[in-house]
Amino acid sequence: MTALKNDRFLRALLKQPVDVTPVWMMRQAGRYLPEYRATRAKAGDFMSLCMNPQLACEVTLQPLDRYPQLDAAILFSDILTIPDAMGQGLYFEAGEGPRFRKVVSSLADIEALPIPDPEKDLGYVMDAVRTIRHELNGRVPLIGFSGSPWTLATYMVEGGSSKDFRKSKAMLYDNPQAMHALLDKLAQSVTSYLNGQIRAGAQAVQIFDSWGGSLSSAAYQEFSLAYMKKIVDGLIREHDGRQVPVILFTKGGGLWLESMAEVGAEALGLDWTCDIGSARARVGDKVALQGNMDPSVLYANPQAIRREVARILGAYGQGSGHVFNLGHGITPEVDPAHAGAFFEAVHELSAQYH
Asked: Which residue numbers delimit the Uroporphyrinogen decarboxylase (URO-D) domain (predicted)?
């Protein structure tokens, strides 16, 4: 494959020296960009966009074309592709978010679930990865991703998004055997899916544990972190002659950074409720850190964005091992010029720390 022209993102994940702090942004291909909205309109709907490798490639590259400072591309897809490939019937309702036609509510339902084959059942994702890698032509590394088992399980048991995870938590406490069976099947599926992405060309992978922070400390360790560890243990860690770093991101996971740092991932993602300086002191040299500006800062003026970037860089301090990102995804109403000011500030203000 083509040599990387810009590998500072991968170097920072491995805590190797970099010239400036690398930056990318969760949901960087998305609704805040007019060019994304135009491509999505062309596709017809969100899932049609995800399932068309050419269009998924187009929207993955749009932010890179607009913002030359970006140090990574992230595959355009959705975390719910795995449950959909398990036969749950994913669809999106306007204003309601993702929904499933079938809901998992018993051990029998779980036992009937297949483990998807990445090339046969999720081939459109693998084709998108291959297409993006080819079109990137070594510009920046490509990040692959998946939802965590616990996060995927909540959608499958609730039948969609939830504010209180009532059904998922009821299953977890009432019938832990069923929940463990579901999480184990999902861990196998995620491992296979991420390895498929790595073989197809993803150069780093991120596990999004969006709802791990909803759990108690004991439940998090048993029902979320333990299954992410299973995945990390089963991933391809070298491909194309390079190490493939793994980023673990639990939204609301700041309480458990020490446990997360023991799992074997190269980096931990932080949401904005954590102080990155104290997070660095807590995890030491075990892992790199990714984050962690509040996405709402992007609604402020460019000077305010710059001040917050400077504060976070100062809190992290000297040396490599920091990938700058938001503490969660960019929101659709942000002015694209403000995102540009954010990326510029990271590169400009971080050189002094390297």
From this structure: 22-31, 143-159
